Amino acid sequence: MNRPRRMCNALVGRGAGLLLAAVFALFMVPHAALADTSAVATVVVDDVHDSTVLAPSCAPPPNVCSVFALPPAPTPIVQAQVIGAPGNLGRARIGKSPSVFANGVTVGVEARTQGASRRARATAEFSDGWACPGTCAFPASPPVPVLTGFKINGVIDDLLANPALPLDPSFLELTIRYTARDAATGQVHESFDLSLCYDSGPCGFRATLNGVDITSQVQIGTNALGQTTLSLDTTHISLRSPFSTWNDELVAKADIQSGGSTLNHVVDFFSTFGVEVTSLDPTVVWVSQSGRVSATSVVPFADLSVRKLEIKDEEFEVKGSFTLGAASDGIDPLAQDVTLQVGTFTATIPNGSFTRHGKHQLTFEGVVDGVKLEVEIRERPDGRFKFKAEGEGADLSGTVNPVTVGLSIGDDGGSTTVTAKFKEATK
After folding, report:
1. What gap in Å lies between CA 256 and CA 267, rounded to an integer?
2. Given Cys at both, which of 149, 231, 237, 297 links 282, Cβ 3.0 to 4.6 Å?
3. What is the bridge-based pairing of β-strands 212-213 and 345-349?
C-alpha cells in the first residue's frame, strides 16, 4: 500500500509551473558551495577539434543560477562531433535518455578509428548542485536514504574484452566516473568508477563502487551485429540530511590511438551511461540546479529474478519472481499502478485494471498504448511472488542482450538484466 506523501513530494505531480517556482525559490536560499551547473562535450579526431560548453552564469552568494530543463534524447543539452577520414569518428553528448532512466541524466562518448596512425577521443563532463526545498527541511528530520542507480550499456573493442587476443600495437581507453559530495563538508556520498585500457596489451579492467570492487557485476555479451557489448546495472543507498546540499559530477572518456595497427577499433558508449537519484523517503524530494528531480520513492525488491525471456519481433514473453524488500508495506496491484519494462519497451497498467482470481492470483488482459498485454501476479505460500507477462505489438527496437527487465507495483519495484532468447521473425 502506498505511504502518505507530504507536501514536498507533491513537486513531482503538480506540473511544470510549480516545479520551476520551487526550483527558483530553492536557489534564492543560501546553500553551502553548490556547484554551478556545467556541461562540456569535447572531441578530437586526427587533430580536428570540436567542443561545446554550457555553463550558466551564477551570481555571488546565494549562488542563483539560470535554471533549465535537460532535454530528452535525441536532443542533447550539448553535443560535439568530428567525422575524420573514412572510418574515423568521435562523438560526445549530454542529455536525457528515457530508455536508460526516466528521471536521470546521461553522458555518452564514442570513438572509432580505421587504419594506421589514427586517433579519436571524446569526453563528456556534467556537474550539478542539489538541494531540498524548504518544505523538505522538517525540524529534527533524520537522515534520509537516497538510492543512486547506475546503468551502462555499450560496445567495446574486442581488445578490451579478450586479453587472449594476439597483441596489437594500439592504445585504447574507456573511463566512466560518477562522484557525489556533500557541498559543505566535501564528504563523498557515492563514487563509481569503470576503467578499461589496452596499451599494446591488456593494462586494466576494473569497476568499483565506493572503493569496493564490483568488476564481477560487469556483463560482457554480444549484440545482434556480432559486436562485443559491456553492461552494468547497479545501485547504492546512502543517508543524507534534508538540510544538506550536495554536488555531483559525471564523466565519460574514450580514447583510441591505432598506432601501427591497420585494424578497425571502436568504443561506443554514446549516451548510454546514466545516473538517477531516488529518495526512499516519500516526504523528501531533491531538486538540482539543472532542473533534475529525484525520482518517486521506490522501495527496492529484496530480489528479482527472471527465468525466461523470449523476444520475437514485436512480441515478448517473460517469467520471473520477486521478494518484497524489508522496508515494504506491501503491494496491492488492484489499487496501484503496475509498470513493466522489457528492454527499450515500458508500459504502465493503471490502477484498477487487474482482476482477482482466487485468493492469491491477479491478472490483467488488455491493451496499453496500442500494445496487447497479458500479465499475471501470484503470491506463493512462502511470501514470494511469481509473475509472467506476454506482449504483442511492442516497440522493442534497440533491445539487445543483456536485456533489462523491470517491474514496479505502487512504490515497490526492482530490475535485473537477463540474456534473452531472440527468435527470428516469421516471414
Report:
1. 8
2. 297
3. unpaired
Q: How many CA atoms lie within 13 A of 144 on its CB side?
A: 27
Euclidean distance between CA atoms 135 and 69, whole angstroms? 22
For residue 137, pLDDT over 60 is answered with: no
Q: Considering only residues 23 and 233, tell me which one the structure prediction assigns the higher pLDDT.
A: 233
pTM of the model: 0.66
pLDDT, tens digit, for every residue of 305-357? 999 999 999 999 999 999 998 878 899 999 888 989 898 888 889 888 999 99
- Can you tell me the distance from the alpha carbon of 207 to that of 216, in angstroms, rounded to the nearest whole number? 8
- Can you read off the three cell numbers belonging to residue 7? 507536501
Cell numbers at 218, concatenated: 560487469
Residue located via cell numbers 527541511: 137
List of residues 6+ apart from 139 with CB closer than 8 A: none
**Number of neighbours of residue 311 by Cβ within 10 angstroms:** 23
For residue 111, give the nearest of 151, 83, 78 by alpha carbon: 83
Find the angle CA(403)-CA(405)-CA(407) to the nearest 5 degrees: 170
What residue ranges define each of the domains in the chain, with the CATH number in brackets? Answer: 7-297 (no CATH), 303-423 (2.60.40)
